[in-house]
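User: I'll paste a sequence; please echo it back and then give the predicted structure.

Assistant: Echoing your sequence first, then the prediction.
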Amino acid sequence: MTRQLSLRPTPSGRVPRTAMVMAAGLGKRMRPLTATRPKPLVSVAGKPLIDHVFDRLVAAGIERAVVNVHYLADQLEAHLKDRFPGIEVIISDEREQLLETGGGLVKARPLLGDDPILVVNSDNLWIDGPVDAIRLLASRWDEATMDALLLMVPLARAHNHDGQGDFYLGADGRITARRQRGRVAPFSYTGLQILHPRLIADAPEGPFSTNLFWNRTIEAERAFGQVHQGLWFDVGTPRAIPQTELILADG
């Protein structure tokens, strides 16, 4: 019997059962496209941004997706209803108050369980490299030494991105520092991470950023980064859409 050799190796590691999909933002930078629809429903390369994300979640074997909603929430809920068989969609309702990323995690905490979760921005668009990016993160995850594992992309390969980088990584992948004002950091956060729910504790009430959790775990030397092996696109403005589609069309 001839053995088939895979050209795309599958990394080992337990993929989180649950994902938290951040979809509650106002999408101000994407105006005027977000005047009548939430940013996750803006179409890029023939499908809404959030559909690109869910395609990746399904392919990686995610079983549950907790999605927070605020702006034009009814549209987003209706779009997701029964759209992705095989993955349970649970809504974390922020209609009364937009809580930002950190506050959104606190609000959704009772829905997330106690095992490590995948957290992904709904406007995140990436193309896998030699291996599935979610499975790559899962293969690197070590609960004994990590509270957060962020997927990074080298700043030079951050398509459409106007930032100056976010983090510095050590030789072992540990996040050693954040970018300082007036300087450039070599790695940008892609909007995809594995997070342990134990980190979602001792938090303030109301809206706040995930930066609070990140700063805490960086100080404890339990924050790590994994470099993305494929393509990543910052699709935050209308002008980024045709630029992204052009690169994707070139294969």
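Residues 1-8 have pLDDT under 50 and may be disordered. The first helix runs from residue 49 to 60.
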